[in-house]
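FIELD: query
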Amino acid sequence: MPGVEGIVDRWNAAYFDRRLSRAVVAELRGLAEASADAQALADRAFRLMRVARQDPADLSLLTAWMIGFSVPRTVPSAWSGLVPPVTMAGRHRKLDEYVAGNPWHRPTGTGVFVDLGCGFPPFTTMDTARRLGDWRVVGVDPAFGRYLVLDADGAYACFDDDHRLRYYQSGNFDPDPAGTRARFRGLLDRLLPRLSTANEVGDEHGTLVRDPMRRYETGNLELVPGGIGEFELPGGADVVRCMNVFMYFDHPFRRRALDWVTGLLRPGGLFVCGSNWTDSAASRYTVYRKEADQLVAREFAVSVENARPIELAPWYALHDDNLENLANAHTVGTLRADADFRRRFDERLDAMLTGLGVCVRGADGYLGGAPVDMPADDLARCSAVLAGRLDGEGFVDHAVEVLRGAGRDAWRNHVGHVAMSPVTPPPLAPSAVL
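FIELD: result
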């Protein structure tokens, strides 16, 4: 593995024409002892930025910190090969609105919605059940288990009927996965004999809950353990949503998943997949419709702040062939190739960032970072705030005009995203560094 200065210098030369700021380079030094998958993710992010025509001066200190510090702590190798636990309320609120008013499919009778890979706790599925109150909503995730163990700090682990660990969450980074697993196992073994007729027992060290999913279920919401290819639904579904899952897998896995979902859907039903972040920021998703027993891609859509994001999310994927990330990068590249759009967008975005006090452009022309005293929740919502303001100033409509001028069939969809007829993007160029 190359030394950190060597690899950062090579990234700077290969993807940024040696124009990254010294401060950004310093933030990337967090990759010094990073795992191979963390360095590969960073390299992939830089290649996507190049496709998207992101100027080196627009790589903010915040994004650089996320790549240098957060990436090594969120790739699967940091979680013993598991997909990191990232779930939050409100994440899919735009997609809930999309389903409610979508132009592609209307259920006959009671609609059936499946949230595949919804995570635990099932915040997004609970949101959907509230928004689609007259639908039957089913949350599905392999993390769901018969037993939930919580320690004194609120970290948790899920165990199945045979007391096998299915999943655990212990914060944003776990320096000792084996020790954490042993600690949760010890709590289970100690508390389980006390779990007789009651469904919950605890002491000063932790709590054990039997059938924890029942806590979250409501009249129109049910939760079922399972994953892609491991779930059956008699009668089928009108909509299956699978967000923030495919970014961890390669395209052959995606093809197999789509084949399986086809059998799960009712005629005319929809499959919505892609990725997003807090309050539906950094959205990029594809909508498929079941037609003649096959899935047909009908819409690809992105949120407008992706045209110059301050988040890591639009660049995060474990494989080069992630369809939504590639399609997003090429869409943004088309937008930023238009000089008028780029000038107007960058001027207004810089002014908005200054107003928020985040990623403010310095006298040297480079974007800064986030204030150290800014609450994490406020920082996480900045991109969603930017998306709303940019849309309010007409940039979604301007983006649609630019894409149409470039020959794309584009429109503003009913949730305010830049939508277009899907086109398979070119493959991502191979790494010039790794």
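FIELD: remark
Residues 4-81+305-420 form one domain.
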